[in-house]
Write a structure and sequence with these properties.
A seven-stranded mixed sheet has the order 7-8-11-10-9-12-13, sandwiched between helices. The protein has a five-stranded mixed sheet with strand order 14-18-17-15-16. A four-stranded antiparallel sheet has the order 2-3-4-5, with helices on one face. Strand 10 and strand 11 form a beta hairpin. It is of the alpha+beta class and 911 residues long. It is globular. Helices cover 39% and strands 11% of the residues. The chain starts with a helix and ends in a 16-residue tail after the last helix.
């Protein structure tokens, strides 16, 4: 023990000498003694407890303590101890830079000023003994003032283990550093971390994750780690990747279960290499979209597409070939499909055809009314269900528009003659396509992916990380839809005719059957002698109204075996559906022996090369691949601003529409024409043009926000309180597009709004039944929410005030509604009121008697009275939502005219 004490005294003596050497630098400083503050005669249980107590006391007194010297006592010669010092202890040691080193001298600084403050904690026994720790003050004097704030002191701003994990999770979720810092501050008010610390931590995480690997090695390692299936091609000379495809293991299971309809489309601005991304999606039994595979291609040539589709064919080996494949008119992709999938029906997207008509034909019409009439006639033409009706309607169209030979020539020679069997219902309804006539599902997947990517300058590994997150969310939603169809009981299917289908068939199929059952009500018994011309049996694999009528007459439930196996599949496991995929369960021992025999026959050099290739296949994470080089745009003057946007460039039809100053001509149409007008979308892929060619128009890019358009459709007394009017695409889904816009989701997310409002209706079905007192009316509201196609007819439009309660309750918002005839405010029916500053207050308007727009009100503007049904049927928990708007509603009542209703008693659809 005497020797041990001598060593300890020796350490203290060394520290004292260091303090003496630095005393000259601190002669002019203010000396403050904190010995009494840190004097503690208690025994600490552990070393960490001692350090924590000392640092907490130091923080309270405006100082930051660090570990100066530490010894855990492993040499068994002395007791474990730790010496704590002020962060400003010691002196800056200047780094010696050799002459001629070529390094620029940095402008450096230091916070060290030779502070003498020291604390020593020492264990009361040797290592391994269960004894406590004591604390003593070696030097309690500081030669500087107290710290006012801990921010800016690097040691005080260090992240704890828990905080490090939080930063890592939030960084993976693409949360911005400033938002992460705000979260840390909210969780711990004493947190002293600064933004630079977070940037350093994030950089260190990325560096540690890659561990010195190249981009391609890191990507391949992640694909192997997560059991992805991947293929790639590379340049033989440079090992630079030219084409690459990967697929998630669960996506492979899904495409094996649901191989019947695939949608394919390419998109751009997703990666720094400027490679087009081919996305292949499928459709589940619950009518959900799932991503099958992602392929980065060197170009959009048939050869590249054939390579990708061949890989897809390998994934689907042993499964039925797709009944239908839907794409746009990408000639290279069409050629590849004909080569790789010769037995599959190829359908061309109607939406893209309609937009090509706008780009090529609209300018040939001098009269807007004639153009609108042509659009309507064309839409009716392509929906004809028999060849005879199609030919008759085409003859009528040719007579009606005989004064426009250029238009007739374009539609015949560019579309009808070569491709009518790929988009006209009379020809396409001869195969099972599940009602998919457009590539909108792929377009929506593009939009979701680009929102997730945020930037168009990501690498393969960056993009894979975001795609993996997107697939996880997608698969979660699909699993939930399966479970809902299996175990959720829908009251509308409680009748005995659905007895054998409940829990075994998806809800989407049941709703389709329900629609067919409604058709049987208007059929006479003798009408069944006429041959059935229904197409749903072929296009969807579901019984038509004639079959259902027969089941009703025989008073028997619909048999399960008359439903196609597609709708009966409610699982992600391929084995759960018998005889769908014939998996090869045999071993490959003979093949391996043959390969080894062939390898032994080669010479040493060939063996070395072949073994290296096999090793690259088995261990792709150690490959020598090089990521693609960035494509440089040589045309035009280089821009100083880096374009990170993932948003596509405007298409030709948008330039054509912008000439008339409107992105949607349907807004001013009569209702019977607007519902048949082709839809619009924010996302449009490449378009191939035919003669006459489209010249580049010197017009500005069309915008969705047009200030004060439709202002005349707002009640005159209220127009001064409108700050801005935001227009949306008018395709029959405009009401749902407005809700998506108001929620900040972007109008392209209108399908999500439809699904969530339908969930709201089912969740609170009893409340809405009490509200409307009519089951048929409630069922009609549910039906109008189920259609996810675009465009849609008026029977699928949003109806207010009925759906105003759905919107306010589902999203917990305050919704103000305006039209020339009715103005109301909708409040949540069941939720507890939130503080006024935390509420989301939004507004929309019904204009031209056929269109909805998003309006932005000025602050503290008058608002309409609360809807009557909210007052009658809201839950007690929702009391108080309306009290915050009393004065604003009173002002509105003083301004309102006699021709505007403020009661919930009229139906705008009949307006």
């Amino acid at each position: 023990m005497e020797k041990e004490n001598n060593n300890t005294d020796e350490d203290v003596e060394n520290i004292s000498k260091e303090s003496d050497n630095s005393s000259k630098a601190s002669d002019k400083e203010i000396l403050t003694d904190y010995s009494s503050v840190f004097t503690n005669y208690n025994t600490f249980v552990t070393r960490d407890a001692l350090i924590t107590w000392a640092r907490d006391v130091g923080r309270q007194n405006g100082m930051v303590l660090t570990i100066k010297v530490s010894d855990n006592g492993n040499n068994r010669r002395r007791r474990p101890y730790v010496v704590l010092a002020c962060e400003r202890a010691g002196n800056y040691r200047k780094r010696i830079v050799r002459e001629g080193g070529g390094k620029r001298k940095r402008d450096t600084g230091s916070k060290k000023n030779g502070c003498q403050f020291r604390l020593k904690g020492q264990k009361l026994g040797m290592i391994g003994e269960q004894v406590g720790w004591e604390l003593s003050v070696i030097c309690g004097v500081h030669n500087h003032g107290d710290v006012e704030d801990m921010e800016g002191h690097s040691f005080a701003g260090r992240l704890s283990t828990h905080e490090m994990a939080l930063v890592e999770d939030m960084s993976k979720g693409l949360v911005k550093p400033k938002e992460i810092l705000a979260t840390l501050k909210q969780r711990d008010t004493s947190n002293a971390t600064i933004l630079k610390t977070l940037y350093n931590v994030r950089h260190r995480m990325k560096y540690n994750e890659k561990a010195g690997k190249s981009q391609m090695q890191f990507l391949m390692g992640k694909l192997v780690e997560n059991n992805y299936i991947q293929w790639h091609r590379s340049c033989k000379k440079t090992d630079e990747v030219t084409d690459m495809l990967w697929a998630h293991p669960i996506s492979i299971n899904l495409v094996r279960n649901f191989p019947y309809v695939l949608v394919m489309d390419c998109t751009y601005k997703t990666n720094r290499y400027r490679l087009p991304l081919l996305e292949i999606v499928g459709i589940t039994s619950t009518h959900k979209t799932f991503s099958v595979a992602f392929a980065y291609l060197k170009s959009e040539r048939a050869e590249n597409y054939e390579w990708a589709l061949t890989r897809l064919q390998t994934i689907m080996k042993g499964c039925p070939m797709p009944n239908a494949i839907v794409t746009d008119r990408d000639l290279g992709l069409m050629k590849a499909i004909a080569t790789i999938y010769p037995t599959s029906r190829h359908l061309i997207c109607r939406w893209h055809i309609n937009k090509n008509l706008i780009a090529n034909c609209k300018k040939l019409f001098d009269d807007d009314e004639m153009w609108d009439s042509f659009e309507s006639e064309w839409s009716i033409l392509v929906k004809q269900e028999s060849e005879e009706l199609f030919n008759s309607k085409l003859a009528t169209l040719e007579i009606k528009f005989s004064n426009y030979p250029g238009v007739l020539s374009y539609i015949k020679h560019t579309w009808l003659d070569p491709y009518k069997d790929r988009f006209v219902s009379a020809y396409t309804d001869t195969c099972m396509h599940l009602g998919v006539y457009t590539s909108n599902r792929a377009e929506n997947s593009h939009a979701s992916l680009k929102r997730q990517l945020v930037s168009s300058l990501g690498t393969f590994s960056d993009n894979w990380s975001e795609i993996d997150k997107l697939l996880l969310l997608q698969q979660t939603e699909i699993k939930a839809s399966f479970q809902k169809s299996k175990y959720h009981y829908q009251h509308c299917f409680k009748f005995s005719i659905y007895k054998e289908l409940r829990g075994f068939v998806s809800f989407f199929a049941l709703y389709k059957i329900k629609e067919e059952l409604k058709k049987t009500r208007g059929l006479l018994s003798g009408s069944f002698e006429i041959p059935c011309k229904c197409t749903i049996r072929v296009t969807h694999g579901l019984p038509c109204s004639h079959e259902l009528y027969d089941f009703q007459m025989r008073n028997v439930p619909i048999p399960l075996d008359c439903i196609d196996s597609h709708w009966r599949m409610l699982s992600m496991e391929p084995s759960s559906r018998p005889n769908l995929c014939k998996h090869d369960v045999s071993t490959y021992d003979d093949d391996i022996d043959e390969i080894c025999k062939l390898l032994k026959e080669k010479d040493k050099e060939q063996q070395r090369i072949l073994i290296a290739k096999v090793r690259e296949i088995l261990k792709p994470e150690v490959n020598g691949l090089v990521e693609p080089s960035k494509k440089v745009v040589t045309k035009g003057r280089p821009s100083k601003k880096i374009d990170k946007s993932t948003r596509r460039d405007p298409s030709a039809f948008e330039y054509q529409e912008s000439i008339k100053g409107s992105c949607s001509q349907k807004d001013s149409m009569p209702r019977n024409q607007a519902k048949n007008t082709p839809s619009s979308s924010m996302w449009s892929p490449n378009v191939f043009y035919s003669q006459p060619s489209i010249q580049k128009l010197p017009v500005r890019k069309p915008r969705s926000t047009i200030k004060m358009k439709y202002i005349e459709q707002i009640p005159e007394f209220f127009r001064e309180y409108v700050s801005q009017i935001v227009d949306v695409i008018g395709d029959g889904n405009c009401g749902f597009r407005v809700v998506a816009s108001m929620l900040g989701l972007g109008q392209e997310n209108w399908p999500k709004i439809r699904v969530e409002l339908l969930e709201e209706l089912h969740k609170n079905y009893d409340i809405y039944m009490k509200m409307h007192k009519n089951q048929d009316h409630v069922e009609q509201l549910a039906k109008s929410l189920q259609n996810l196609e675009s465009p849609v007819g008026s029977e699928y439009w949003m109806t207010l005030p009925d759906m105003g309660h759905f919107i306010a309750s589902r999203y917990n918002i305050v919704l103000h509604f305006f039209s020339l005839t009715q103005c109301l405010t909708f409040l949540p029916l069941k939720s507890k009121p939130v503080a006024i500053e935390l509420r989301s207050e939004v507004a929309m308007a019904f204009v031209n008697r056929n269109h909805f727009v998003h309006i932005i009100l000025k602050k503290n503007s008058p608002v309409p009275p609360v809807a009557d049904y909210w007052k009658r049927y809201h839950d007690e928990l929702a009391n108080g939502w309306d009290s915050a708007y009393t004065s604003r509603m009173d002002t509105f009542k003083l301004l309102i005219g006699l021709n505007v209703s403020i009661t919930e008693c009229i139906d705008l659809a009949d307006d």
